[in-house]
Design a protein that fits this description.
This protein is α+β, with helices and mostly antiparallel strands and 556 residues long. The chain folds into three domains: 122 residues, SH3 type barrels (Roll); 94 residues; 251 residues, MetI-like (MetI-like fold, Orthogonal Bundle), CATH 1.10.3720. It contains 16 helices and twelve strands. The strands form three sheets. Strands 5, 6, 7, 8, 9 and 10 form a six-stranded antiparallel β-sheet that branches. Helix 8 packs across helix 11, helix 10 packs across helix 11 and helix 12 packs antiparallel against helix 13.
């Protein structure tokens, strides 16, 4: 290629087109690769991996048997191995070490253990090894010996496995009934008693003397609630006695026999004896438990449904607040305000607000929404409950408003751009036909600008769903005792604190006492957060596209 042709090629702009295309392609590959990495690291955690048994002997020590799941294998240098007391054969520069999930944390101290390959014997995979998912203390590995009922042996040997499945199903059903009574029925009773206490306090503030008709009515209602509570307490006593009936005995790797009440067991399986179909079914069940269950063990075990629920509900409430406010502000700036230095200054301020660090919004939300606005609401409407705050404390409402304030510049800018793209002739034609300016806006301009409004909402949702820093100040907690929606009036409790997937990732990844157990859950939760954001955005995009199609059909 001649020098002139190269110069002509560069002047045509083709190299820059190819450069941009290459940069976009690399970015797409990197994003897809990152998502695949997160998906593999997170979703592989739920696969029922085989459990090995192997002999292990450290120099100068007695041989022991280890039972566990192989989690990781790494090749390390001879110098690094020597620091752990391992001497490699002459001339060998590297060696292997393996990370085993040995479980049984309450007996061994740690869930995970690094072992050196040169000290380990050949691994076997006995079919009778069981993996127990417990409600606390993590997983438990060993050999099932027998099933007991109130201390008496019911089944042992090969018969114990079949008997265990039936009794575990019974135990889980009883525990589900206990949780239902504790969370729903007792929660309703506590809410009713608290309401009566507030009525008493209100009468006291109003100066109504004790023994009045109002106090007598309250006392009658309190007796009814107490009778109902006593009845539920009896039911719970019966259920607790029934659920604590059965136990199982498991032999762990060091030979000790451990008795575990079935009330402390969530699930049990023998992964080495499973076929591919059984493992796939178990995998699906474990993923569903993760998505639909409540967290346990400082969020390192169990599910993340409260965090999913809190994230989606907060984003929806935020959208309800930010969309009308952003649209009205954009309409005023574009359609009604006299264009001049002040309006230009306001636009600059709006654009600059989009660049303010999110933690600043969190501080503002805490000071203005929680302490000032919430405190005054408590003084005016909830004085009977003081000094215990109702709205004067971080909660779902203030978190949603803070994120609405954080994302409103995006909605204003996107809506203004949509309004700017509508030809002036359309407005003038509507006015010429006798429509007022308000009718022109409502029936002509806003329907045409609706896709731009949805674009602003999409950008707002994408940003708000992943924010963590401001939420830590205005409502998000490590573990919320109750969801913001329940069966107790007013059903939607905007004053309650809530869980959020972004904060859950931070908490599990950086505040967990069991780092190795938490790592795969961080990946799984991050993948779920990305998927939720994609679903929310795709929903908004589909609505926007439908609006565009409706406008095109109306226009034609």
């Amino acid at each position: 290629m001649s020098k002139q042709s190269v110069s002509t090629w560069f002047k045509s702009g083709s190299p820059w087109i190819w450069l941009n295309a290459g940069a976009v392609s690399i970015s797409i590959v990197m994003v897809v690769g990152l998502l695949l990495l997160i998906a593999v690291r997170g979703l592989s955690h739920f696969w029922p991996a085989d459990i090995m048994a192997l002999s292990y002997q450290e120099p100068g020590g007695e041989p022991i048997t280890l039972i566990g799941e192989l989690v990781d294998t790494e090749v390390v240098t001879a110098l690094r191995l020597k620091s752990t007391g391992v001497d490699l054969p002459s001339g060998q520069t590297t060696g292997e070490r393996h990370l085993l999930k040995v479980g049984n944390r309450d007996y061994f101290g740690l869930d995970f253990r690094w072992i050196n390959g040169s000290w380990a014997g050949e691994a076997s995979y006995p079919e009778k090894i069981v993996a127990v998912e417990r409600r606390e203390w993590g997983d438990f590995f060993g050999y099932l010996l027998e099933i007991r009922q109130q201390g008496q042996t019911i089944a042992s040997g090969d018969d114990a496995w079949a008997e265990l499945q039936q009794r575990l199903d019974r135990s889980n059903k009883l525990i589900a009934q206990i949780k239902q009574l504790e969370k729903s029925d007792i929660g309703t009773i506590n809410h009713g008693l608290e309401g009566l206490r507030l009525k008493d306090r209100k009468l006291e503030l109003e100066g109504v003397v004790a023994g009045s008709v109002q106090h007598q009515q309250i006392e009658q209602e309190r007796k009814q609630w107490n009778l109902r509570y006593a009845d539920i307490t009896k039911q719970l006593a019966v259920l607790n006695a029934a659920v604590n009936r059965d136990q199982m005995v498991i032999q762990i790797s060091d030979g000790r026999e451990v008795e575990i009440p079935l009330a402390k067991v969530v699930d049990i399986m023998r992964p080495n004896a499973m076929g591919v179909g059984q493992k796939i079914a178990t995998y699906g069940r474990e993923v569903w438990k993760f998505v639909s269950g409540d967290p346990r063990e400082a969020n390192t075990e169990g599910g993340i449904f409260p965090a999913i629920f809190g994230t989606v509900l907060m984003v929806m409430i935020m959208a309800v607040f930010v969309t009308p406010f952003g649209v009205v502000a954009a309409i005023y700036l574009k359609e009604y305000a006299k264009q001049g230095p002040i309006i230009r200054l306001i636009r600059i301020a709006v654009n600059n607000l989009a660049g303010v660090p999110s933690i600043v919004y969190g501080v503002f939300g805490l000071g203005f929404f929680v302490y000032f606005l919430g405190g005054n609401i408590d003084e005016i409407f909830f004085s009977a409950s003081l000094p215990t705050p109702t709205f004067g404390t971080p909660g779902l409402l203030w978190a949603s408003l803070t994120l609405a304030l954080l994302t409103v510049p995006v909605v204003i800018v996107a809506t203004e751009e949509g309004l700017s793209r509508i030809p002036r002739a359309i407005r003038e034609g509507s006015l010429a036909l006798g429509a007022t300016k308000a009718e022109t806006l409502w029936r002509t301009v806003l329907p045409m600008a609706a896709p731009a409004m949805m674009t602003g909402l999409i950008l707002a949702v994408a940003r708000a769903a992943g924010e963590v820093a401001p939420l830590m100040m205005v409502g998000v907690v490590k573990l919320a005792p109750a969801l913001a929606i329940d069966t107790v009036a007013p059903y939607l409790h905007l004053d309650r604190q809530f869980m959020h997937l972004g904060f859950h990732i931070y908490d599990v990844g950086f505040q967990s006492p069991n780092v190795e157990a938490a790592r795969p859950l961080v990946y799984a939760t991050a993948l779920l957060l990305v998927l939720i954001i994609i679903v929310l955005n795709m929903t908004a995009i589909s609505i926007r596209n439908r609006l565009r199609e409706n406008f095109k059909s109306t226009e034609s």
